[in-house]
Description:
- By secondary structure, the protein is α+β, with helices and mostly antiparallel strands.
- Among the domains are: 145-232; 247-334, no CATH class; 356-531 and 542-564, P-loop containing nucleotide triphosphate hydrolases (Rossmann fold, 3-Layer(aba) Sandwich).
- Helices cover 33% and strands 15% of the residues.
- The protein contains 17 helices and 19 strands.
- The strands form five sheets. A five-stranded antiparallel β-sheet has the order 3-9-5-6-4. The protein has a five-stranded antiparallel β-sheet with strand order 10-14-12-13-11.
- InterPro entries: P-loop_NTPase, Sialate-O-sulfotransferase, Sulfotransferase_dom, WSC_carb-bd.
- It comes from Cisticola juncidis.
- Pfam families: Sulfotransfer_1, WSC.
- Belongs to the WSCD family.
- Residues 142-234, 245-342 form the WSC domain.
Amino acid sequence: xxxxxxxxxxxxxxxxxxxxxxxxxxxxxxxxxxxxxxxxxxxxxxxxxxxxxxxxxxxxxxxxxxxxxxxxxxxxxxxxxxxxxxxxxxxxxxxxxxxxxxxxxxxxxxxxxxxxxxxxxxxxxxxxxxxxxxxxxxxxxxxxxxxxxxxxxxxxxxxxxxxxxxxxxxxxxxxxxxxxxxxxxxxxxxxxxxxxxxxxxxxxxxxxxxxxxxxxxxxxxxxxxxxxxxxxxxxxxxxxxxxxxxxxxxxxxxxxxxxxxxxxxxxxxxxxxxxxxxxxxxxxxxxxxxxxxxxxxxxxxxxxxxxxxxxxxxxxxxxxxxxxxxxxxxxxxxxxxxxxxxxxxxxxxxxxxxxxxxxxxxxxxxxxxxxxxxxxxxxxxxxxxxxxxxxxxxxxxxxxxxxxxxxxxxxxxxxxxxxxxxxxxxxxxxxxxxxxxxxxxxxxxxxxxxxxxxxxxxxxxxxxxxxxxxxxxxxxxxxxxxxxxxxxxxxxxxxxxxxxxxxxxxxxxxxxxxxxxxxxxxxxxxxxxxxxxxxxxxxxxxxxxxxxxxxxxxxxxxxxxxxxxxxxxxxxxxxxx
Length: 577
Protein backbone atom coordinates (compact mmCIF):
# COMPACT_ATOMS: atom_id res chain seq x y z
CA UNK A 1 0.00 0.00 0.00
CA UNK A 2 2.76 2.38 0.92
CA UNK A 3 4.56 1.62 -2.37
CA UNK A 4 1.47 2.41 -4.45
CA UNK A 5 0.93 5.65 -2.55
CA UNK A 6 4.56 6.63 -3.17
CA UNK A 7 4.17 6.04 -6.92
CA UNK A 8 0.98 8.12 -7.02
CA UNK A 9 2.71 10.94 -5.16
CA UNK A 10 5.65 10.85 -7.57
CA UNK A 11 3.32 10.95 -10.58
CA UNK A 12 1.41 13.94 -9.22
CA UNK A 13 4.64 15.84 -8.60
CA UNK A 14 5.75 15.25 -12.18
CA UNK A 15 2.33 16.30 -13.52
CA UNK A 16 2.36 19.43 -11.39
CA UNK A 17 5.83 20.34 -12.65
CA UNK A 18 4.76 19.73 -16.26
CA UNK A 19 1.68 21.93 -15.89
CA UNK A 20 3.77 24.65 -14.29
CA UNK A 21 6.31 24.47 -17.14
CA UNK A 22 3.63 24.61 -19.86
CA UNK A 23 1.89 27.54 -18.15
CA UNK A 24 5.17 29.47 -17.87
CA UNK A 25 6.01 28.77 -21.52
CA UNK A 26 2.57 29.95 -22.62
CA UNK A 27 2.87 33.21 -20.66
CA UNK A 28 6.36 33.87 -21.98
CA UNK A 29 5.26 33.30 -25.58
CA UNK A 30 2.30 35.64 -25.12
CA UNK A 31 4.49 38.31 -23.54
CA UNK A 32 7.03 38.15 -26.37
CA UNK A 33 4.28 38.48 -28.99
CA UNK A 34 2.79 41.45 -27.15
CA UNK A 35 6.17 43.15 -26.86
CA UNK A 36 6.89 42.60 -30.55
CA UNK A 37 3.61 44.22 -31.54
CA UNK A 38 3.78 47.17 -29.18
CA UNK A 39 7.44 48.09 -29.65
CA UNK A 40 7.20 48.69 -33.40
CA UNK A 41 8.39 52.13 -34.33
CA UNK A 42 7.36 53.41 -37.71
CA UNK A 43 10.18 55.61 -38.94
CA UNK A 44 10.19 57.98 -41.86
CA UNK A 45 11.47 56.37 -45.00
CA UNK A 46 11.31 52.85 -43.58
CA UNK A 47 11.68 50.33 -46.31
CA UNK A 48 13.00 46.82 -46.02
CA UNK A 49 16.39 45.66 -46.98
CA UNK A 50 16.28 42.76 -49.40
CA UNK A 51 15.64 39.13 -48.63
CA UNK A 52 18.11 38.44 -51.39
CA UNK A 53 20.38 41.38 -50.84
CA UNK A 54 23.74 40.53 -52.27
CA UNK A 55 26.99 42.12 -51.27
CA UNK A 56 29.62 43.68 -53.49
CA UNK A 57 31.11 41.86 -56.43
CA UNK A 58 34.59 40.49 -55.69
CA UNK A 59 37.44 42.16 -57.42
CA UNK A 60 38.03 39.18 -59.72
CA UNK A 61 35.22 38.97 -62.29
CA UNK A 62 35.74 35.26 -62.67
CA UNK A 63 34.57 34.70 -59.09
CA UNK A 64 31.41 36.79 -59.14
CA UNK A 65 28.37 35.36 -57.33
CA UNK A 66 25.02 36.62 -56.21
CA UNK A 67 24.44 36.56 -52.49
CA UNK A 68 21.36 34.96 -51.02
CA UNK A 69 20.84 37.26 -48.07
CA UNK A 70 18.01 35.26 -46.64
CA UNK A 71 20.93 34.22 -44.44
CA UNK A 72 21.35 37.86 -43.41
CA UNK A 73 19.14 37.72 -40.35
CA UNK A 74 21.83 39.27 -38.16
CA UNK A 75 23.98 42.28 -38.95
CA UNK A 76 26.95 40.64 -37.26
CA UNK A 77 29.83 39.53 -39.44
CA UNK A 78 30.22 35.88 -40.19
CA UNK A 79 30.15 33.31 -42.98
CA UNK A 80 27.22 33.60 -45.41
CA UNK A 81 25.79 31.42 -48.12
CA UNK A 82 26.31 32.52 -51.72
CA UNK A 83 23.85 31.53 -54.42
CA UNK A 84 25.27 31.61 -57.92
CA UNK A 85 23.57 32.00 -61.28
CA UNK A 86 23.02 28.70 -63.03
CA UNK A 87 25.32 29.84 -65.79
CA UNK A 88 28.18 30.57 -63.39
CA UNK A 89 30.16 27.56 -62.22
CA UNK A 90 32.78 29.29 -60.09
CA UNK A 91 32.84 28.42 -56.39
CA UNK A 92 31.06 30.83 -54.06
CA UNK A 93 32.90 33.16 -51.74
CA UNK A 94 32.23 34.16 -48.17
CA UNK A 95 29.98 37.17 -47.87
CA UNK A 96 31.05 40.27 -46.04
CA UNK A 97 28.62 41.47 -43.41
CA UNK A 98 26.22 44.22 -44.35
CA UNK A 99 26.56 47.76 -42.91
CA UNK A 100 25.65 47.93 -39.25
CA UNK A 101 22.78 50.35 -39.85
CA UNK A 102 20.96 48.02 -42.24
CA UNK A 103 18.20 45.94 -40.69
CA UNK A 104 17.39 42.39 -41.75
CA UNK A 105 14.76 42.77 -44.41
CA UNK A 106 12.31 40.01 -43.63
CA UNK A 107 11.85 41.19 -40.05
CA UNK A 108 11.46 44.83 -40.99
CA UNK A 109 9.07 44.27 -43.87
CA UNK A 110 6.73 42.11 -41.92
CA UNK A 111 6.54 44.82 -39.29
CA UNK A 112 5.20 47.25 -41.88
CA UNK A 113 1.92 45.46 -42.63
CA UNK A 114 -0.97 47.80 -42.97
CA UNK A 115 -2.93 46.12 -40.17
CA UNK A 116 -1.00 48.33 -37.74
CA UNK A 117 -2.48 51.44 -39.28
CA UNK A 118 -6.21 50.95 -38.83
CA UNK A 119 -6.06 53.91 -36.49
CA UNK A 120 -5.85 56.22 -39.51
CA UNK A 121 -9.39 55.29 -40.52
CA UNK A 122 -10.92 54.92 -37.09
CA UNK A 123 -14.31 56.56 -36.82
CA UNK A 124 -14.24 60.18 -35.84
CA UNK A 125 -16.30 61.30 -32.87
CA UNK A 126 -18.97 63.71 -34.08
CA UNK A 127 -18.63 67.28 -32.94
CA UNK A 128 -21.69 68.29 -31.00
CA UNK A 129 -21.51 71.88 -32.17
CA UNK A 130 -20.41 71.16 -35.73
CA UNK A 131 -22.63 73.68 -37.43
CA UNK A 132 -21.57 76.45 -35.06
CA UNK A 133 -17.89 75.61 -35.41
CA UNK A 134 -18.17 75.53 -39.18
CA UNK A 135 -19.70 78.97 -39.24
CA UNK A 136 -17.16 80.23 -36.74
CA UNK A 137 -14.38 78.78 -38.84
CA UNK A 138 -15.13 81.09 -41.74
CA UNK A 139 -13.51 84.01 -39.97
CA UNK A 140 -10.20 82.18 -39.83
CA UNK A 141 -9.83 81.73 -43.60
CA UNK A 142 -9.98 83.71 -46.81
CA UNK A 143 -12.91 81.80 -48.29
CA UNK A 144 -16.58 82.16 -47.40
CA UNK A 145 -18.39 79.20 -45.87
CA UNK A 146 -21.23 78.22 -48.20
CA UNK A 147 -22.79 75.47 -46.12
CA UNK A 148 -23.05 71.70 -45.75
CA UNK A 149 -23.96 69.71 -48.87
CA UNK A 150 -24.55 66.09 -49.81
CA UNK A 151 -21.65 64.19 -51.33
CA UNK A 152 -21.50 60.95 -53.32
CA UNK A 153 -17.98 59.69 -54.04
CA UNK A 154 -19.23 57.77 -57.09
CA UNK A 155 -21.05 60.75 -58.61
CA UNK A 156 -19.19 63.73 -57.21
CA UNK A 157 -20.85 67.10 -56.92
CA UNK A 158 -17.51 68.91 -57.08
CA UNK A 159 -16.00 67.30 -60.16
CA UNK A 160 -12.56 68.91 -60.19
CA UNK A 161 -9.28 67.92 -58.57
CA UNK A 162 -9.18 65.68 -55.48
CA UNK A 163 -6.62 65.70 -52.66
CA UNK A 164 -6.14 63.55 -49.57
CA UNK A 165 -4.19 64.09 -46.39
CA UNK A 166 -5.04 61.82 -43.48
CA UNK A 167 -2.74 63.67 -41.10
CA UNK A 168 -2.65 67.35 -41.93
CA UNK A 169 -5.81 68.25 -43.83
CA UNK A 170 -7.18 71.68 -42.89
CA UNK A 171 -9.71 74.05 -44.43
CA UNK A 172 -6.93 76.44 -45.43
CA UNK A 173 -4.90 73.66 -47.05
CA UNK A 174 -7.87 72.59 -49.16
CA UNK A 175 -8.72 76.17 -50.13
CA UNK A 176 -5.17 76.89 -51.24
CA UNK A 177 -4.96 73.67 -53.27
CA UNK A 178 -8.19 74.46 -55.13
CA UNK A 179 -7.34 78.16 -55.62
CA UNK A 180 -3.97 77.32 -57.16
CA UNK A 181 -5.80 75.25 -59.76
CA UNK A 182 -8.25 78.06 -60.55
CA UNK A 183 -11.33 76.44 -59.00
CA UNK A 184 -14.07 78.52 -57.38
CA UNK A 185 -15.13 76.14 -54.62
CA UNK A 186 -13.35 73.87 -52.14
CA UNK A 187 -15.22 71.11 -50.33
CA UNK A 188 -14.04 68.87 -47.50
CA UNK A 189 -15.35 65.44 -46.49
CA UNK A 190 -14.48 62.71 -43.97
CA UNK A 191 -12.03 65.04 -42.24
CA UNK A 192 -9.26 64.34 -44.76
CA UNK A 193 -10.57 64.62 -48.32
CA UNK A 194 -10.56 67.80 -50.41
CA UNK A 195 -12.64 68.29 -53.56
CA UNK A 196 -12.52 71.19 -55.98
CA UNK A 197 -15.02 72.48 -58.50
CA UNK A 198 -16.58 75.50 -60.16
CA UNK A 199 -20.25 74.65 -59.60
CA UNK A 200 -21.89 74.81 -56.18
CA UNK A 201 -23.53 71.49 -55.20
CA UNK A 202 -27.30 71.56 -55.59
CA UNK A 203 -28.41 69.39 -52.66
CA UNK A 204 -27.94 71.10 -49.30
CA UNK A 205 -27.74 69.15 -46.04
CA UNK A 206 -28.33 70.02 -42.41
CA UNK A 207 -25.50 71.98 -40.82
CA UNK A 208 -25.07 69.43 -38.01
CA UNK A 209 -24.42 66.65 -40.54
CA UNK A 210 -21.01 68.17 -41.29
CA UNK A 211 -19.57 66.96 -38.01
CA UNK A 212 -16.14 65.41 -38.60
CA UNK A 213 -13.09 67.20 -37.25
CA UNK A 214 -10.24 68.08 -39.62
CA UNK A 215 -7.28 65.75 -39.31
CA UNK A 216 -4.88 68.66 -39.26
CA UNK A 217 -6.65 71.06 -36.90
CA UNK A 218 -8.71 70.31 -33.84
CA UNK A 219 -11.97 72.20 -33.57
CA UNK A 220 -12.27 72.70 -37.33
CA UNK A 221 -14.94 70.96 -39.35
CA UNK A 222 -14.06 69.12 -42.56
CA UNK A 223 -17.36 67.73 -43.76
CA UNK A 224 -18.93 64.48 -42.66
CA UNK A 225 -19.93 61.05 -43.90
CA UNK A 226 -21.17 61.70 -47.46
CA UNK A 227 -21.28 65.38 -46.59
CA UNK A 228 -19.20 68.32 -47.86
CA UNK A 229 -18.26 71.48 -46.02
CA UNK A 230 -18.05 73.87 -48.98
CA UNK A 231 -16.13 77.14 -49.13
CA UNK A 232 -15.82 79.68 -51.89
CA UNK A 233 -12.19 80.38 -52.78
CA UNK A 234 -10.92 83.94 -52.63
CA UNK A 235 -9.63 85.29 -55.92
CA UNK A 236 -5.89 85.21 -56.39
CA UNK A 237 -4.02 88.51 -56.59
CA UNK A 238 -4.83 90.21 -59.86
CA UNK A 239 -4.82 86.84 -61.60
CA UNK A 240 -1.02 86.88 -61.72
CA UNK A 241 -0.63 83.60 -59.89
CA UNK A 242 -3.09 81.91 -62.21
CA UNK A 243 -1.13 83.12 -65.17
CA UNK A 244 1.99 81.40 -63.87
CA UNK A 245 0.08 78.13 -63.66
CA UNK A 246 -0.73 78.15 -67.38
CA UNK A 247 1.71 75.96 -69.32
CA UNK A 248 2.42 76.33 -73.02
CA UNK A 249 2.04 72.92 -74.71
CA UNK A 250 3.06 73.93 -78.22
CA UNK A 251 1.90 74.59 -81.75
CA UNK A 252 -0.36 71.96 -83.36
CA UNK A 253 -2.37 71.41 -86.50
CA UNK A 254 -5.98 72.33 -85.80
CA UNK A 255 -8.56 69.55 -86.21
CA UNK A 256 -10.91 69.81 -89.17
CA UNK A 257 -13.98 70.63 -87.09
CA UNK A 258 -13.04 72.48 -83.93
CA UNK A 259 -16.60 72.80 -82.62
CA UNK A 260 -17.07 69.02 -82.72
CA UNK A 261 -13.66 68.39 -81.13
CA UNK A 262 -13.95 70.90 -78.28
CA UNK A 263 -17.05 71.16 -76.06
CA UNK A 264 -16.74 74.87 -75.22
CA UNK A 265 -15.69 77.89 -77.27
CA UNK A 266 -15.44 81.66 -77.14
CA UNK A 267 -14.87 84.32 -79.78
CA UNK A 268 -13.29 87.44 -78.33
CA UNK A 269 -11.63 90.42 -80.03
CA UNK A 270 -8.08 91.04 -78.77
CA UNK A 271 -8.06 87.57 -77.21
CA UNK A 272 -5.20 86.88 -74.80
CA UNK A 273 -3.82 83.71 -73.26
CA UNK A 274 -5.06 84.81 -69.85
CA UNK A 275 -8.57 85.41 -71.14
CA UNK A 276 -8.80 82.02 -72.85
CA UNK A 277 -7.22 80.17 -69.91
CA UNK A 278 -9.59 81.87 -67.45
CA UNK A 279 -12.61 80.97 -69.59
CA UNK A 280 -11.57 77.30 -69.91
CA UNK A 281 -10.67 77.06 -66.22
CA UNK A 282 -14.17 78.18 -65.23
CA UNK A 283 -15.57 75.53 -67.57
CA UNK A 284 -13.28 72.98 -65.85
CA UNK A 285 -11.28 71.99 -68.94
CA UNK A 286 -7.53 71.28 -68.82
CA UNK A 287 -6.75 72.58 -72.34
CA UNK A 288 -7.11 76.10 -73.74
CA UNK A 289 -6.75 76.20 -77.55
CA UNK A 290 -6.31 79.49 -79.39
CA UNK A 291 -6.76 80.08 -83.10
CA UNK A 292 -6.77 83.77 -83.97
CA UNK A 293 -9.61 85.34 -81.98
CA UNK A 294 -11.17 81.96 -81.23
CA UNK A 295 -10.77 80.17 -77.89
CA UNK A 296 -11.65 76.49 -77.50
CA UNK A 297 -11.70 74.33 -74.37
CA UNK A 298 -11.42 70.58 -74.06
CA UNK A 299 -9.33 67.49 -73.41
CA UNK A 300 -6.66 65.57 -75.31
CA UNK A 301 -8.54 63.01 -77.42
CA UNK A 302 -7.88 60.66 -80.30
CA UNK A 303 -8.78 63.47 -82.70
CA UNK A 304 -6.47 65.90 -80.90
CA UNK A 305 -3.83 63.89 -79.01
CA UNK A 306 -1.03 66.49 -78.81
CA UNK A 307 1.44 63.87 -80.05
CA UNK A 308 2.38 65.57 -83.31
CA UNK A 309 3.60 69.05 -82.54
CA UNK A 310 4.46 71.44 -85.34
CA UNK A 311 7.41 73.75 -85.84
CA UNK A 312 6.92 76.82 -83.69
CA UNK A 313 7.48 79.01 -86.74
CA UNK A 314 4.10 77.88 -88.07
CA UNK A 315 2.51 79.58 -85.08
CA UNK A 316 4.38 82.84 -85.52
CA UNK A 317 3.45 86.00 -83.69
CA UNK A 318 2.79 84.37 -80.34
CA UNK A 319 3.10 87.73 -78.62
CA UNK A 320 0.15 88.97 -80.63
CA UNK A 321 -2.44 86.25 -80.12
CA UNK A 322 -5.02 87.87 -82.37
CA UNK A 323 -2.75 87.35 -85.38
CA UNK A 324 -1.19 84.07 -84.24
CA UNK A 325 -2.07 80.55 -85.19
CA UNK A 326 -4.76 81.49 -87.64
CA UNK A 327 -6.03 79.01 -90.19
CA UNK A 328 -4.58 75.50 -90.05
CA UNK A 329 -2.65 75.76 -86.78
CA UNK A 330 -3.42 76.61 -83.18
CA UNK A 331 -1.68 77.34 -79.90
CA UNK A 332 -2.35 74.98 -76.99
CA UNK A 333 -2.02 75.80 -73.28
CA UNK A 334 -2.49 73.67 -70.19
CA UNK A 335 -4.79 75.34 -67.67
CA UNK A 336 -4.45 74.84 -63.90
CA UNK A 337 -7.51 72.56 -63.99
CA UNK A 338 -6.83 68.85 -63.57
CA UNK A 339 -7.97 66.37 -66.21
CA UNK A 340 -10.41 64.30 -64.13
CA UNK A 341 -11.54 61.76 -66.75
CA UNK A 342 -9.20 59.15 -65.27
CA UNK A 343 -9.09 60.06 -61.58
CA UNK A 344 -11.96 57.80 -60.47
CA UNK A 345 -10.63 54.66 -58.79
CA UNK A 346 -12.10 51.80 -56.80
CA UNK A 347 -11.32 48.35 -55.44
CA UNK A 348 -12.11 45.28 -57.53
CA UNK A 349 -15.73 44.24 -57.06
CA UNK A 350 -14.76 40.55 -57.03
CA UNK A 351 -11.52 38.96 -55.92
CA UNK A 352 -8.93 38.71 -58.67
CA UNK A 353 -8.23 35.17 -59.84
CA UNK A 354 -4.69 36.15 -60.87
CA UNK A 355 -2.36 37.45 -58.17
CA UNK A 356 -0.11 40.02 -59.90
CA UNK A 357 2.99 41.70 -58.48
CA UNK A 358 4.41 45.07 -59.46
CA UNK A 359 8.00 44.32 -58.55
CA UNK A 360 10.98 46.64 -58.59
CA UNK A 361 14.14 47.57 -56.78
CA UNK A 362 13.57 50.58 -54.47
CA UNK A 363 14.02 53.86 -56.31
CA UNK A 364 13.05 52.32 -59.66
CA UNK A 365 9.79 54.25 -60.05
CA UNK A 366 7.31 51.82 -58.48
CA UNK A 367 5.16 54.62 -57.04
CA UNK A 368 5.02 56.38 -60.40
CA UNK A 369 4.09 53.11 -62.13
CA UNK A 370 1.31 52.58 -59.59
CA UNK A 371 0.01 56.07 -60.29
CA UNK A 372 -0.12 55.30 -64.01
CA UNK A 373 -1.74 51.89 -63.56
CA UNK A 374 -4.39 53.17 -61.14
CA UNK A 375 -5.42 56.02 -63.42
CA UNK A 376 -5.36 53.86 -66.55
CA UNK A 377 -7.36 50.93 -65.14
CA UNK A 378 -9.52 52.75 -62.59
CA UNK A 379 -8.54 50.26 -59.87
CA UNK A 380 -6.39 50.70 -56.79
CA UNK A 381 -3.02 49.00 -56.49
CA UNK A 382 -1.97 47.25 -53.29
CA UNK A 383 1.30 47.06 -51.42
CA UNK A 384 3.28 44.42 -49.55
CA UNK A 385 4.14 47.20 -47.11
CA UNK A 386 2.36 50.22 -45.67
CA UNK A 387 3.55 53.73 -46.49
CA UNK A 388 1.53 56.39 -44.71
CA UNK A 389 2.77 59.14 -47.02
CA UNK A 390 1.41 57.26 -50.04
CA UNK A 391 -1.89 56.50 -48.34
CA UNK A 392 -2.28 60.16 -47.43
CA UNK A 393 -1.93 61.10 -51.09
CA UNK A 394 -4.70 58.83 -52.32
CA UNK A 395 -3.12 55.37 -52.68
CA UNK A 396 -5.94 53.76 -50.72
CA UNK A 397 -4.76 50.27 -51.56
CA UNK A 398 -1.88 50.82 -49.12
CA UNK A 399 -4.12 49.99 -46.18
CA UNK A 400 -5.81 47.00 -47.82
CA UNK A 401 -4.20 43.67 -46.92
CA UNK A 402 -1.78 42.75 -49.65
CA UNK A 403 -3.36 39.30 -50.12
CA UNK A 404 -6.94 40.53 -50.29
CA UNK A 405 -6.94 40.32 -54.12
CA UNK A 406 -9.09 43.46 -54.21
CA UNK A 407 -6.38 45.44 -55.99
CA UNK A 408 -5.24 45.20 -59.61
CA UNK A 409 -1.63 44.45 -58.61
CA UNK A 410 0.59 44.56 -55.54
CA UNK A 411 3.76 46.58 -55.08
CA UNK A 412 6.72 44.61 -53.76
CA UNK A 413 10.49 44.88 -53.46
CA UNK A 414 10.76 41.25 -52.34
CA UNK A 415 13.15 38.96 -54.16
CA UNK A 416 13.20 35.66 -52.30
CA UNK A 417 12.05 32.41 -53.89
CA UNK A 418 9.15 31.99 -51.47
CA UNK A 419 7.97 35.58 -51.88
CA UNK A 420 8.18 35.45 -55.68
CA UNK A 421 6.33 32.15 -56.03
CA UNK A 422 3.36 33.55 -54.09
CA UNK A 423 2.44 35.56 -57.20
CA UNK A 424 0.93 34.15 -60.38
CA UNK A 425 2.52 36.81 -62.58
CA UNK A 426 4.46 40.03 -62.28
CA UNK A 427 5.36 43.30 -63.97
CA UNK A 428 9.11 43.61 -63.38
CA UNK A 429 10.11 47.28 -63.46
CA UNK A 430 13.83 47.91 -64.03
CA UNK A 431 15.64 51.24 -63.85
CA UNK A 432 19.22 52.34 -64.43
CA UNK A 433 21.01 51.35 -61.18
CA UNK A 434 22.84 54.66 -61.01
CA UNK A 435 19.54 56.53 -61.00
CA UNK A 436 17.85 53.99 -58.72
CA UNK A 437 20.57 54.14 -56.10
CA UNK A 438 20.50 57.92 -55.98
CA UNK A 439 16.69 58.01 -55.85
CA UNK A 440 16.52 55.52 -52.99
CA UNK A 441 19.30 57.30 -51.08
CA UNK A 442 17.37 60.56 -51.43
CA UNK A 443 14.18 58.87 -50.21
CA UNK A 444 15.88 57.31 -47.20
CA UNK A 445 17.27 60.61 -45.98
CA UNK A 446 14.73 63.16 -47.26
CA UNK A 447 11.47 61.37 -48.03
CA UNK A 448 9.62 60.94 -51.31
CA UNK A 449 10.02 64.54 -52.48
CA UNK A 450 13.28 65.71 -50.92
CA UNK A 451 17.01 65.41 -51.52
CA UNK A 452 19.73 64.08 -49.27
CA UNK A 453 22.14 66.73 -48.06
CA UNK A 454 25.73 67.11 -49.22
CA UNK A 455 26.75 65.86 -45.80
CA UNK A 456 24.86 62.60 -46.44
CA UNK A 457 26.47 62.13 -49.83
CA UNK A 458 29.98 62.75 -48.53
CA UNK A 459 29.62 60.57 -45.44
CA UNK A 460 30.70 56.94 -45.23
CA UNK A 461 27.02 55.95 -45.34
CA UNK A 462 26.94 56.52 -49.10
CA UNK A 463 29.76 54.05 -49.97
CA UNK A 464 28.23 51.49 -47.61
CA UNK A 465 24.86 52.04 -49.23
CA UNK A 466 26.23 51.52 -52.74
CA UNK A 467 28.10 48.33 -51.77
CA UNK A 468 24.99 46.80 -50.25
CA UNK A 469 22.29 48.08 -52.58
CA UNK A 470 24.08 47.71 -55.90
CA UNK A 471 24.19 43.95 -55.48
CA UNK A 472 20.56 43.94 -54.37
CA UNK A 473 19.65 45.69 -57.64
CA UNK A 474 21.20 42.77 -59.54
CA UNK A 475 19.92 39.96 -57.34
CA UNK A 476 16.38 41.37 -57.41
CA UNK A 477 16.19 41.08 -61.21
CA UNK A 478 17.98 37.72 -61.34
CA UNK A 479 15.74 36.13 -58.73
CA UNK A 480 12.55 37.27 -60.47
CA UNK A 481 13.88 35.98 -63.80
CA UNK A 482 14.63 32.66 -62.15
CA UNK A 483 11.48 32.11 -60.07
CA UNK A 484 8.85 34.35 -61.69
CA UNK A 485 6.05 32.37 -63.33
CA UNK A 486 4.89 34.90 -65.92
CA UNK A 487 6.75 38.17 -66.39
CA UNK A 488 6.36 41.43 -68.25
CA UNK A 489 9.68 43.30 -68.14
CA UNK A 490 9.30 47.08 -68.33
CA UNK A 491 12.24 49.47 -68.36
CA UNK A 492 11.59 52.72 -66.55
CA UNK A 493 13.35 54.71 -69.26
CA UNK A 494 11.17 53.19 -72.02
CA UNK A 495 8.01 53.89 -70.01
CA UNK A 496 9.06 57.50 -69.53
CA UNK A 497 9.88 58.02 -73.20
CA UNK A 498 6.97 56.07 -74.76
CA UNK A 499 4.31 56.33 -72.09
CA UNK A 500 1.14 55.30 -73.90
CA UNK A 501 2.55 52.29 -75.84
CA UNK A 502 4.24 50.88 -72.75
CA UNK A 503 1.26 51.61 -70.53
CA UNK A 504 -0.95 49.77 -73.03
CA UNK A 505 1.29 46.71 -72.65
CA UNK A 506 1.02 46.87 -68.89
CA UNK A 507 -2.77 47.26 -68.94
CA UNK A 508 -3.20 44.38 -71.38
CA UNK A 509 -0.95 42.24 -69.18
CA UNK A 510 -3.35 43.02 -66.31
CA UNK A 511 -6.24 41.92 -68.54
CA UNK A 512 -8.02 45.29 -68.41
CA UNK A 513 -9.54 47.10 -71.39
CA UNK A 514 -9.24 50.89 -71.43
CA UNK A 515 -10.17 53.59 -73.90
CA UNK A 516 -7.71 55.75 -75.78
CA UNK A 517 -9.15 58.87 -74.16
CA UNK A 518 -8.45 57.45 -70.71
CA UNK A 519 -4.84 56.75 -71.65
CA UNK A 520 -4.53 60.30 -72.96
CA UNK A 521 -5.91 61.52 -69.64
CA UNK A 522 -3.21 59.51 -67.83
CA UNK A 523 -0.60 61.10 -70.07
CA UNK A 524 -2.01 64.50 -69.19
CA UNK A 525 -1.61 63.64 -65.47
CA UNK A 526 1.58 61.64 -65.88
CA UNK A 527 3.65 63.07 -63.02
CA UNK A 528 1.39 62.34 -60.06
CA UNK A 529 2.11 63.68 -56.57
CA UNK A 530 5.58 62.24 -55.97
CA UNK A 531 7.79 63.80 -58.59
CA UNK A 532 10.81 65.61 -57.18
CA UNK A 533 10.75 69.16 -58.43
CA UNK A 534 13.66 69.73 -60.77
CA UNK A 535 16.82 67.68 -60.96
CA UNK A 536 19.02 68.97 -58.19
CA UNK A 537 22.54 68.85 -59.54
CA UNK A 538 25.30 67.78 -57.21
CA UNK A 539 28.45 69.83 -57.25
CA UNK A 540 30.47 66.60 -57.23
CA UNK A 541 30.36 63.12 -58.78
CA UNK A 542 28.79 60.81 -56.15
CA UNK A 543 30.14 57.62 -57.74
CA UNK A 544 33.82 56.79 -57.39
CA UNK A 545 35.57 54.70 -60.02
CA UNK A 546 35.43 51.64 -57.76
CA UNK A 547 31.68 52.13 -57.41
CA UNK A 548 31.30 52.41 -61.17
CA UNK A 549 33.31 49.25 -61.77
CA UNK A 550 31.15 47.41 -59.26
CA UNK A 551 27.85 48.63 -60.72
CA UNK A 552 28.94 48.05 -64.33
CA UNK A 553 29.71 44.40 -63.57
CA UNK A 554 26.21 43.94 -62.22
CA UNK A 555 24.75 45.70 -65.26
CA UNK A 556 26.51 43.30 -67.62
CA UNK A 557 25.37 40.34 -65.54
CA UNK A 558 21.70 41.43 -65.58
CA UNK A 559 21.85 42.26 -69.29
CA UNK A 560 23.13 38.75 -70.05
CA UNK A 561 20.44 37.15 -67.87
CA UNK A 562 17.65 39.13 -69.58
CA UNK A 563 18.82 38.11 -73.04
CA UNK A 564 19.13 34.52 -71.85
CA UNK A 565 15.41 34.57 -71.03
CA UNK A 566 14.57 36.05 -74.47
CA UNK A 567 13.80 39.51 -73.07
CA UNK A 568 15.27 42.64 -74.57
CA UNK A 569 18.54 43.61 -72.89
CA UNK A 570 19.08 46.68 -70.78
CA UNK A 571 18.91 50.07 -72.54
CA UNK A 572 22.23 51.27 -73.91
CA UNK A 573 22.38 54.20 -71.53
CA UNK A 574 22.94 51.77 -68.64
CA UNK A 575 26.43 50.65 -69.61
CA UNK A 576 29.09 51.56 -69.03
CA UNK A 577 29.61 54.95 -67.42
